[in-house]
Design brief:
The structure holds two protein chains of two kinds. Chain A has eight helices and no strands. Chain A is mainly alpha-helical. The longest helix of chain A has 40 residues, at 38-77. The chains are: A mainly alpha, B alpha/beta.
Amino acid sequence: MPFPTLDRAAKKIVSAVQQYALLSGRSLANLFRKPFYGADIIVQADRIGIGSLPIVILTGFFTGGVLALNSASTLANFGAAAITGELVSLSMIKELGPVLTSLMVSGRNASGMASELGSMMVTEQIDAMRALGTDPLKKLVMPRIVSTIFMMFFLTIISDAVGTLGGAFVSVVLLGQDGSQYFHTAYQSLVFADILQGLVKPIFFGFIIATIGCFYGMTTRGGTQGVGRSTTQAVVVSSVLIIVVDFIISKFMISVFGR
Amino acid sequence: MASAAPVAEPQQWQPPAGPAILFEDVSIGFEGKPVLDRISFKLEQGDTRILLGPAGVGKSVLLKLANGLLKPDSGRITVFGEEVSAMREQELFRLRHHIGMVFQEGALFDSLTVRDNVGYQLMEEHVPDEEIDERVKEALRVVELEHTMEKVPSELSGGMRRRVAIARAVVSNPALVLYDSPTGGLDPITSTTIIELVVKQRDVFRRSSLMITHRLQDAFVMAMNRYNEKENRMELLPEGTVDDRTSFLMLNEGKLVFDGSTHDLVHSDDPFISRYIR
């Protein structure tokens, strides 16, 4: 690659990171500035939270089910089929619940935010909003960030619960295990550190989904083709970041709590 | 145009003395390419300046600079005595309450009704609903679209959308209106209707305005007509006269190549200007 091209590419990346940091920082700072768009937060929470509920429930249930199905046969080889519940609940609550819920919400909402804001950008609606004296970061971005973080927290709890139930359904109905034993091991194996890890992650993931979706939306250029590009990039970048940040949080939590 | 009831305008903000817009050596470029190069001009309060030039020359960029939507690379832009080129976005929101802007394609919020589009600024200011309804109706009456209150922009024609955009720009009674090609892509009859509205804003409400147009015909209609408030229609000025508060700017290759009156424009010896206007 010729030197000027490398130089330009590096500048572009640094500039994008700077823009992303500014957008996220300003949007969050707007939470404490008047006017407060409470109604917009509720509308977005409904769209993001309630709207994502069906896919989160389905994903959680079948993930828990397939986890029980796969692990039960392996555990049976060691005579440990009784701890299927422990394995399912630990995996769901610490890892799969937050990550899979976030990936689902990212696919649905990061793309939605990027395309909605991107369309508004290319049709000058964002400029029109600024020209009418309204801050789009306050009116459009802040409510999306707040509501995504808030709803991700509860969606993850629902996904954890439904996943554990899915595992129970497979263990009891298909594998003929004892239901009370399943729930007993699932409950007894959990400690504070596991719950904390499972509930801290969705807060970070919610922030990533909303800020990346809004960032790509607000920086859309180039008409309908640009909107398509922003939408794809928002999903790809937020999904990759979720996985990377998941690893970092897990590593940090394990070093602090020892599990 | 059909007769319309007189509009009870809300009290207009009194801007400080001095020009409405002042550009001093303003330059801007994108991705290393210069778009506007050392542009200087003035728009006096109550005047209308028509900005002409070939497509892609930076006319819309100039309009966005005037409203603080873009920041210049160098130079100073002052609007009503406040230096917009040095103001922070939060400070600009306050100033923009006194500036109306009509975008090229209208830029109406497609998920809101016409009522909510026109009354958007009033809703943001938490004006009571009854007052919003009243003022939106008045603004829509000016553009003769009061029957479209509950429609969404996708249900309107291109010309109707531009008229709604004009109503939205003037609903809060701004002291300055910026028009970005309000007649672009419209048929001649609809274009004349839009220009009539712009002339009405100029002559009846005495608003300062900066207007971009690609249609030379629209520019000359503005210069050669006045608004008759009694008959509620636009009429030709006496032969040989033009509106002396309407003047022209012309951009070419990033530079301001003309700044003067209708008479000067028509009689210019500059080969580019002669070719452009003939």
